[in-house]
Amino acid sequence: MSVAVDDDLWSAVGDPTRRRMLDLLLAEGAGTATTLSEQLPVTRQAVSKHLVVLDRVGLVHAAAAGRERRYQVDEAQLARAVAQLADVGATWDARLRRIKRIAEAIERSQEK
Questions:
Q1: pLDDT tens digits for range 41-100
Q2: Whose CB has fewer CB within 10 Å in the chain, the N or C terminal residue?
């Protein structure tokens, strides 16, 4: 693989609630723990903990907005994650093509 895989990044996006939070932030441009919790089946405190994880890996950044923090997706870090996923996908595609060729060769040898 040409792009180094960041285990912490993938651990962060491996959680379905965090992926949904990223979707909401991308759709709305930004959001707070309160606005996100209104759209998710988890408490505001749980949303805050998820946001800390996303912030730690650089997928979101926060700015003070009154008493709350307003979160926005870091598009450069998200692009990095997408590049990693594409690279992993290409690697698996190549592996599966090799397995298919081996299976076809075995099948041909058994037909003789």
A1: 999 999 999 999 999 999 999 999 899 999 999 999 999 888 888 988 899 999 999 999
A2: C
Q: pTM higher than 0.85, yes or no?
A: no
87 contacts: CB under 8 Å, gap ≥ 6: 1, 2, 3, 5
Average pLDDT over residues 7-24: 92
Query: DSSP of 1-42, one letter per residue?
Result: --SPP-HHHHHHHTSHHHHHHHHHHHHHS-B-HHHHHTTSSS
Confidence at residue 1, expressed as pLDDT on a 0 to 100 scale: 42
The answer to the question of residue 1 being in a domain is: no
Residue 2 lies in a domain: no
In a domain, 51, yes or no: yes
Q: Does residue 42 belong to any structural domain of this protein?
A: yes
Q: Which domain holds residue 12?
A: 7-111
| CATH number, domain with residue 100 | 1.10.10.10
